[in-house]
Amino acid sequence: MQDIDTIYIDGAFVTPHGEERYDLFNPATEQVIGRVRLADAQDADLAIAAAKRAFPAFSRTSKRERIDMLKRMHAAVLAREDELFEAITEEYGAPVSRGRWMAKHASAVLLEAAKVLQDFAFTRRAGTADVVMQPLGVAGLITPWNSDAGFICGKLAAALAAGCTAVIKPSEMSAMQTRVVTEALHEAGLPPGVFNIVTGRGDTVGARISAHPDVAKLSFTGSTAVGKTILRSAADTLKRVTLELGGKSPAIVLDDADFDVVVPLVIQAGFMNSGQACIAGTRILVPQHRLDEFEARISEEVSRTQAGDPRDPQTVVGPMVSQKQWERVQRYIRLGIDEGARLIAGGAGRPEGVGAGWFVRPTVFSGVSNDMTIAREEIFGPVLSIITYRDTDEAIAIANDTPYGLQAYVFSADPARASEVAARIDAGRVLVNTLAHEPAAPFGGFKQSGIGREYGAYGLEAFLEPKAVLGARRD
Ligand code: NAD
Predict the structure, then answer these.
(1) Ligand 1, atom 14: closest residue by C-alpha
(2) Are both 121 and 40 inside the same structural domain?
(3) Ligand 1 pocket test: which of 92, 171, 404, 453 has the largest number of ligand atoms within 8 Å of its C-beta?
(4) Catalytic, out of 90, 112, 172, 244
(5) From 90, 153, 164, 278, active-site residue
């Protein structure tokens, strides 16, 4: 049982003013494994004040100094990788391979930001003007539970690389990961107040950060509904806002695709992070004339997909993070059945032989039309929908017929053909015959999947404001 009763303000671990205790669960056993004392709005104010005090000096640090800090932070988080993996498995239930990737990702993003900073030009020329890229000020960084440590480190890396100071509001459900990351970052020895970490509820601490006049920038990852609330709160003081929100990504299987190659990729794209991924490929677009063949292949593949104990290396789909999330997924499975979709794998309830834990059955529906609820709304669980199309134009039209636009996948035996389709998709990222991540490339959504981009130079620019200086040069 872990008792987490401090937050991090002005370079020190302090007892929060907030007194609410919040239980942390192991989703694989439903047992309470820890308790966190939550910060409140007053704690958020103190954190913002510390970041505001630290900003003038920090914003004037050199590129070299900030690269050194990022490298120290990288080394410190890397040294805690095993501990972080344990926390991710315990409180989140990520299967081994995913948990390992997440634990590594948390340190990798810090090093990546150091590399981007190395090559980044803070001063540029535009006509006769000098353009200086100036850090925005105090950044409020709000993260979700589905990759808490990675988002804390990724957002903080970009903010600090730009010269902003930060107040981080991690998910209240991820306090164990947050504790490991905070201890590591503390060891990196940054000046007090440069970053502050206040775990608390979204509607108190999160809301305070998103409305506070001393916060200049917000970077939020989470649901589209909360993203819209944050954008409204930010409007009064015209904060710069980056929103990374939900998705309903299409996986377009072109008619020339080799199913032996593509079906395992489609399954991985759909069930990644136990289906709790904003980028999961949940709408599988299949040519009508090859549907029977595709259904047979995918049913066979899903029957081999192990759901259960996240510590078993064979497990692909671990538990849902919470009972609420488990119930949400069950509701969507029932909705799919009620709306007339045809179950070809999985279904409601727990996987066979599993008694406790928030486990769901990896589920695939066929006969789905793109206007069904399961094709329109983000489920955030391992529930996939097969939708058929007659020709490529129709496939593209269905792919783009969604309020979201975060990511898309195109699979074809002919990469040139796949690239032509990719060019016509409205999404922030299109993956052609691959599931690989590219940390230097921008990440973010079209339409209601968000505003702005993270990662690489685009992610760094999101914490900067261009300032044009005219007449300063005589040349
Ligand atoms: P959520 O929106 O419920 O919560 C995200 C964060 O916002 C949490 O820290 C929460 O406490 C906080 N929050 C809640 N209400 C708030 C308010 N009124 N003001 C300020 N902050 C508030 O999301 P979640 O359930 O933690 O995560 C799942 C969602 O995140 C999914 O919709 C998923 O698609 C999305 N997501 C998006 C990306 C991306 O990069 N686009 C990545 C991961 C997850």
Answers:
(1) 202
(2) yes
(3) 171
(4) 244
(5) 278
How long is the chain? 475
Taking the mean position of all CA atoms in its chain, how far away is CA 386? 25
Q: Do 430 and 454 sit in the same domain of this protein? A: no
144 CA from centroid of ligand 1 (Å): 4
Cβ of 171 below 6 Å from ligand 1 = yes
Distance CA 66, CA 118 (A): 10
Residues 104 and 7 in one domain: yes
327 is a catalytic site residue: no
164 is a catalytic site residue? no
**Residue with CA at minimum distance from ligand 1 atom 32:** 223
- Domain extent, residue 425, equals 250-438
Q: 198: closest CA among 360, 10, 407?
A: 10
Verify whether ligand 1 is closer than 6 Å to residue 344 (CB atom). no
Q: Write out the chain's pLDDT in tens, 475 residues.
A: 999 999 999 999 999 999 999 999 999 999 999 999 999 999 999 999 999 999 999 999 999 999 999 999 999 999 999 999 999 999 999 999 999 999 999 999 999 999 999 999 999 999 999 999 999 999 999 999 999 999 999 999 999 999 999 999 999 999 999 999 999 999 999 999 999 999 999 999 999 999 999 999 999 999 999 999 999 999 999 999 999 999 999 999 999 999 999 999 999 999 999 999 999 999 999 999 999 999 999 999 999 999 999 999 999 999 999 999 999 999 999 999 999 999 999 999 999 989 899 999 999 999 999 999 999 999 999 999 999 999 999 999 999 999 999 999 999 999 999 999 999 999 999 999 999 999 999 999 999 999 999 999 999 999 999 999 999 876 6
3-state helix, strand, coil split of the chain in percent (to 5) is 45, 25, 35
Whole-prediction pTM value? 0.98
Q: How far is CA 381 from CA 333, 385, 420, in A?
A: 10, 12, 30
Q: How many domains does the chain have?
A: 2
